[in-house]
Amino acid sequence: MAPPKNRPLPGAMTDRNLALELVRVTEAAALAAARWIGLGDKNAADGAAVEAMRHAFDAVAIEGTVVIGEGEMDEAPMLYIGEKVGCGGPKMDIAVDPLEGTTLTAKGGPNAMATLALAEEGKFLHAPDIYMDKIAVGAGLPDGVVNLDDSVANNLRNLARAKRCDRSDLVVCMLDRDRHKQLLAHCREAGARVVLISDGDVAGVIATAMPDAEIDIYMGSGGAPEGVLAAAALRCVGGQMQGRLQYESEDQIERVRQMGHADPKRVFTCEQMAQGDVMFAATGVTTGAMLRGVRRTGTSAITHSIVMRSHSGTVRFIEGHHNLAQKTWTAT
């Protein structure tokens, strides 16, 4: 029997409330980290974000397990892989980066933010803290328009054709790293422009789905955990992403096999890295292409956040006004 019209489906209100609770968690981390902007201490900024996020999770009505975190249990006080969060409720898996862009925060650079994603138990790729080769584009493009195993020139040619533009109109985003020198050269040889970012490849991937960011494609290697977070965000907006784990030793390959990945060379799609109904939330710490940074005014602060959900495809931007005197978790 169909539910009466104009009445929310069972669980719909809970889901909507949960989305707002996730934003409160990222707001807490961002507010705490913002006190360290420009002070040159990335570890202190990261530690403040971690503790604020952990404390904020205590009020979220889930039985959550961190499956993408900052380290292992013996590396606490980080939000470690396997840590339990929440005050009870449905079993959910959590992917977190309490401060995406620790160096950016320490130096006062753009695009630092607090991020997290949530999915049903067992729906996130269990990615170890190693590198992942990535390629990502935004929504509204033919399936398979880019491929991690194709050449840079072919990927850019196919993307330009799909967007009905010249390759010279395309903008590629990648981390500014020595390991990307050849990739950078190939992009420029193909006629594309390149935006090099110092840190924060979650923001770089998400930028492909944000028209105002003017980024057409993300390429290059970065952290595998960050790859899962970025895939979760792209799932919510219909973007495409592929990733392949990269290894520096046989021990890393063996560890990946122990985590259940039989083929260490497998290419994972966006849907394989973040399955099911996914929610993603982020709050700006420093101002970037997608989010404004925390603005402090005496005992108050203003935050700018994004929350999205794959089930509905809805993206919401939220501006929060905070009385810092009532938020003990912002203290450092």
Rg estimate, integer Å: 19 Å
Query: What assembly state would you assign to the polypeptide chains in this entry?
Result: single chain
Strand content: 25-35%
Helix segment tally: 9
N to C succession of SSEs? HHEEEHEEHEHEHEHEHEHEEEE
Principal-axes shape call: globular
Sequence stretches where pLDDT stays below 50 over 5 or more residues: 1-14
* Main β-sheet description: 8 strands, mixed
Count the beta strands. Answer: 14
Average pLDDT: 89
The helix/strand class is: alpha+beta
Percent of residues in helices comes to 25-40%
Distance between the ends:
54 Å
Tell me what the structure shows:
There is one protein chain. The chain is of the alpha+beta class and about 325 residues long. It is built from nine helices and 14 strands. It has helices spanning about 10-35, 40-55, 100-105, 150-165, 180-190, 200-205, 225-235, 250-260, 270-275; strands at about 65-70, 85, 90-100, 115-120, 130-135, 170-175, 195, 215-225, 240-245, 265-270, 280-285, 295, 300-310, 315-325. Strands 1, 2, 3, 4, 11, 12, 13 and 14 form an eight-stranded mixed sheet that branches. A six-stranded mixed sheet has the order 7-6-8-5-9-10, with helices on both faces. The longest helix has 23 residues, at about 10-35.
List keywords for this structure.
single chain; 332 residues; alpha+beta; eight-stranded mixed beta sheet; six-stranded mixed beta sheet; 30% helix; globular; disordered N terminus
Record the SSE blueprint.
Blueprint: H1 12-34, H2 42-57, E1 63-68, E2 84-85, E3 91-100, H3 102-107, E4 113-120, E5 131-137, H4 152-163, E6 171-175, H5 181-189, E7 193-197, H6 201-206, E8 217-223, H7 224-237, E9 240-245, H8 250-258, E10 267-269, H9 270-273, E11 279-284, E12 295-297, E13 300-309, E14 314-323
Parallel strand pairs: 1-3, 6-7, 6-8
Antiparallel strand pairs: 1-2, 3-4, 4-11, 5-8, 5-9, 9-10, 11-13, 12-13, 13-14
Helix pairs in contact: 1-2
